[in-house]
Hints:
By secondary structure, this protein is an alpha+beta fold. The protein has helices at 3-29, 57-65, 111-145, and strands spanning 45-53, 73-82, 88-91, 103-106. The strands form 2 sheets. It has a two-stranded antiparallel sheet with strand order 1-2. It has a two-stranded antiparallel ribbon with strand order 3-4. Helix 1 packs antiparallel against helix 3. The longest helix is centred in the last third of the chain and has 35 residues, at 111-145. The mean pLDDT is 90.
Amino acid sequence: MDFLTALHISTTGLTTQRTRMNVISTNLANVNTTRTQSGDPYRRKVVLMEAKPVEDFESALRLSLKPEEEELHGVGVREIAADRTPFRRVYSPGHPDADQMGYVSYPNVNVITEMADMMISKRSYEANVTAISATKGMALKALEIGR
Length: 147
């Protein structure tokens, strides 16, 4: 694997984690949204990731010449899906969105879960930044050999 392929794989991780952080931020911003445009409470969103093969010229050439070699994979967002867990119901008969029994449906967003997911995403982002820095350092050291 060359330096550019390593950088490409790390950047797919950065992009995916940035998307995940944006979705988590949206979830946290809507933790008390009891009515959306559809009339229902906000529904938590989750990022579904998948391994995606690296699509660069070198990888395609290597696999065509040696098909037995293992294909390199990065990561990508497959889908941003709605979490289907039930809404949180709170008894509040004076609330404008209360039903006939006085219960209000709040979003299925748990702040603690979102913060834990945010910390995991942040650590993954930092790991990819570290991998990029290490790759850059190796490339610089390789260039110094030629002096």
